[in-house]
Specification:
388 residues, six-stranded antiparallel beta sheet, 13 helices, 35% helix
C-alpha cells in the first residue's frame, strides 16, 4: 500500500516506548512535508491513535500507533508548539517554535478535546514556496480576461469565496504577483493576513495576532492611515472587518479579500446578515470569484475508458489515482438586475435568479470541460460539487 513504508518506519522506532515519541513525531512531520501534505491530524480512537494526512484536499490515514501512547504524542506536540501540557479540557493554538528541522515549513498546531482524549491538527505552510502566476491557475480565457481587467481597477472590492482549502489565498497571491510585476512600484500594495502563507516581494505584508489587540479590524483601520492603493485582507471574519473593507473600497482603494461561503450569492447574503447596508454593497463590490479545487487524474496511471477517465492508482500518486489539483471558478459581476435584488435585501435563492443575468461559465460547465479534456473524473466532480 502507498503508506506501508511510513507505518514500517513508525514500527521500527518502537512506538511502545514513551522515549521514542519525539523521534516518531519528527519523522511523521518530515514525511508529511516531503509528500506535500497540507495538514497532519493525530486522532485518538477507542483502540489506537490514527495519523492522517490531507493530500490534494483529501484525508488519508497513513499510520497507526498504540492508543495508550496518544497522550505522549499530544504532549510532545504541545511542547513543540509551546502550549500548556496540563490543560486537556480546552482547545489551544500555537506554532512550532523551531522550524529548521522541518525545512523551515511553518507549522500551526491546534488541539481539541474529544471523547477519547485530544485531537491535534498541524497545518503546514511553506513561506518560501511557489507563488503561482495568474496563467498557471487554469482559468478559462474569458475568466482570465475579466480578472486581468479587475486588477487594473483603482477602487472597489473583489471577494474570493469558497470552502476552506479551495485555493482562495493562492488565487489572491497570484493576483498580487501580477500587480507587482505590472505596476513596477507605482502602487503601494499591502496585506494583512493570518498567517502569512507566502512572502511576496513588492508587497508590505503584516500578520495579525488573534487574542491580542492586533486583530483584522484594528490592523485594517491603522493600515488605511498608511495611504495604500491596494489592500489584501486575508479573511473577513466579523462585521467590523467587513464594514471597514467595504468602506475602504468606496474611498479609493482596491480591496481583495476572502470570505467563506458556499456560493457567490451566499457572500452577498452573509454580508447583508453582518449588517452591511445594501447600497454600500452595490457601490463597493466589483466582483465575486467563487472557486473550488478538484483533483486531477494522475498522468502516470490514468486510463481512458471511452469518453471518460478512470483513476487507477500507482506509487507516484500514493495509490490514490490523483495527483495535483485544478481550479474550478466562476466570476460574478454586480449587474443592474443583481443590484436591484441586493437593494431589496433578497434571499440567496432570489439573488441566484438575478445573477443569471451575468453571463459567465459556471463551475459545473468548467468541471465538464475538465472531464472532456481527460484531466479529471466524474467521480471527483461528484465528490466536490455533489450529484449533478
Amino acid at each position: 500500500m502507498a503508506f506501508d513504508s511510513l507505518q514500517a518506519d513508525v514500527d521500527k522506532l518502537q512506538p511502545t516506548k514513551p522515549d521514542s515519541i519525539p523521534a516518531i513525531v519528527q519523522h511523521v512531520l518530515l514525511d508529511a512535508v516531503a509528500r506535500g501534505a497540507s495538514d497532519v491530524h493525530f486522532e485518538p480512537t477507542r483502540k489506537d491513535l490514527e495519523i492522517r494526512y490531507r493530500l490534494d484536499g483529501v484525508m488519508q490515514t497513513v499510520a497507526r500507533m498504540p492508543g495508550d501512547l496518544a497522550k505522549n504524542v499530544v504532549s510532545r506536540l504541545k511542547v513543540m508548539a509551546e502550549l500548556l501540557t496540563y490543560r486537556v479540557d480546552i482547545p489551544q493554538e500555537g506554532r512550532v517554535a523551531d522550524a529548521k528541522p522541518y525545512q523551515n515549513v511553518d507549522m500551526r498546531v491546534s488541539t481539541f478535546p474529544v471523547v477519547h482524549g485530544e485531537k491535534v491538527a498541524v497545518r503546514l505552510f511553506d513561506p518560501t514556496g511557489q507563488v503561482y502566476q495568474l496563467e498557471q491557475l487554469g482559468l478559462g480565457d474569458e475568466q482570465m480576461a475579466v480578472l486581468s481587467s479587475l486588477l487594473k481597477s483603482r477602487h472597489g472590492a473583489v471577494l474570493m469565496t469558497g470552502p476552506s482549502g479551495s485555493g482562495k489565498t493562492t488565487t489572491i497571491y497570484a493576483c498580487l504577483h501580477r500587480m507587482v510585476s505590472e505596476e513596477q512600484g507605482r502602487r503601494q500594495i499591502v496585506s494583512i493576513e493570518d498567517p502569512i502563507e507566502r512572502v511576496l516581494d513588492g508587497v508590505s505584508q503584516t500578520q495579525v495576532r488573534p487574542g491580542t489587540e492586533f486583530d483584522f479590524a484594528r490592523g485594517l483601520r491603522s493600515l488605511l492611515r498608511q495611504d495604500p492603493e491596494v489592500i489584501m485582507i486575508g479573511e473577513v471574519r466579523d462585521a467590523e472587518t467587513a464594514a471597514i473593507a467595504i468602506e475602504a473600497a468606496l474611498t479609493g482603494h482596491l480591496v481583495f479579500t476572502t470570505l467563506h461561503s458556499g456560493s457567490a450569492c451566499g457572500v452577498i447574503s452573509r454580508l447583508l446578515d453582518m449588517g452591511i447596508e445594501p447600497y454600500l454593497l452595490t457601490s463597493g463590490l466589483r466582483a465575486i470569484l467563487n472557486q473550488r479545487l478538484i483533483r486531477q487524474a494522475c498522468p502516470s496511471c490514468k486510463r481512458q475508458k471511452g469518453d471518460r477517465v478512470k483513476a487507477v492508482g500507482c506509487p507516484q500518486c500514493f495509490g490514490t489515482g490523483y495527483r495535483g489539483r485544478m481550479l474550478l471558478a466562476e466570476i460574478l459581476h454586480i449587474t443592474p438586475e443583481l443590484r436591484q435584488a441586493i437593494l431589496a435585501r433578497a434571499d440567496t435563492h432570489a439573488l441566484e435568479v438575478a445573477a443569471q443575468s451575468c453571463p459567465r461559465m459556471n463551475m459545473v460547465d468548467a468541471a465538464r470541460l475538465g472531464v472532456q479534456r481527460g484531466l479529471t473524473t466524474e467521480e471527483e466532480i461528484e465528490r466536490v460539487l455533489g450529484a449533478r
